[in-house]
Design a protein that fits this description.
7 helices; binds zinc ion
């Protein structure tokens, strides 16, 4: 799928990880949280690419004059999504970045392997897969599904991020010397 869908999915991964608590209710340390987000981010990429899809951004006929314009369009979409996800991350930003790195990595190594001839690949099946997997479905339908999926991911992410900032557990961890919030 297009990079922006993977980045938005990474936002959801980060929100899931932000909700994990130890038995006593405390938040796990950042290192393990970031590590889990990295792995789950990559897993979300492979899972989404297993669905029939047509990554349409590289095929849109804009900036065709630009060398590697297909890559610039894909990166532009990914960066916009990253800006959105990060802007809503709040204190969860390190976990968000880890999830995004994990979610983007399979395509980075795919481009490095296929375009630059880098021999190392962690996800060989993904790297050697054709960039589209339509399963015989019309590409316009697949592109539309991708856009709908991205909008749903973005709305859900924004909602979860907001609810996390307002979550009741925040008041439990607030510094005792801090003044209570005024309504
Ligand atoms: Zn991919």
């Amino acid at each position: 799928m297009d990079l922006f869908v993977h980045v938005l999915a990474a936002g959801l991964v980060a929100e899931g990880v932000a909700r994990v608590r130890r038995r006593g209710g405390s938040t796990p340390r950042l290192g393990p949280r970031a590590g889990v987000a990295l792995v789950l981010g990559a897993a979300s990429h492979l899972g989404l690419d297993a669905l029939p899809h047509f990554g349409f951004l590289p095929s849109i006929a804009v900036w065709t004059w630009m060398p590697q314009g297909w890559l610039v369009r894909a990166l532009g979409g990914g960066l916009l999504a990253f800006g959105f996800v990060l802007a809503n991350a709040g204190k969860n930003w390190p976990v968000v970045i880890a999830a995004c790195v994990g979610a983007v990595y399979p395509d980075v190594e795919k481009v490095a392997h296929n375009e630059l001839g880098v021999p190392f690949v962690l996800f060989r099946a993904h790297a050697e897969l054709a960039s589209t997997y339509t399963a015989g479905l019309p590409i316009k339908l697949l592109a539309a599904v991708e856009v709908v999926l991205a909008v749903l991911f973005a709305l859900l992410y924004a909602r979860l991020a907001r609810s996390r900032r307002d979550a009741p557990w925040k008041s439990l961890t607030r510094d005792k010397n801090e003044a209570p919030p005024t309504p």
